[in-house]
Amino acid sequence: MRATKIIRRIDELGRIVIPKGVRSQLGIKEGDPFELFTQGRDVILKRYQPTTNISNVLDELKRMLAAEPNLKCGPTLLEKVAEMQLLLAGSKVDEE
Question: Which of 31, 58, 74, 92 is most exposed by smallest CB count within 10 Å?
Fold first, then answer.
């Protein structure tokens, strides 16, 4: 994550403006969809990309669980995700 040293305040409607230079640099256009995530007291804004591949969904879930070290059920969930990935990999072999 790169610091921009740009500070913006949230307005009365809960909005925050992404500076034009940052939008141009990242190719963000009006109407582009974004997802909001929370991590502790932080809010993470991420460009939304619909995932249709279950393998990608499981990878994202593992990443999110790893990013929350204080999540009590995290290790158990990580094990279950790994099991699902193995099952998915096995079913792909069966299909071939």
Answer: 31
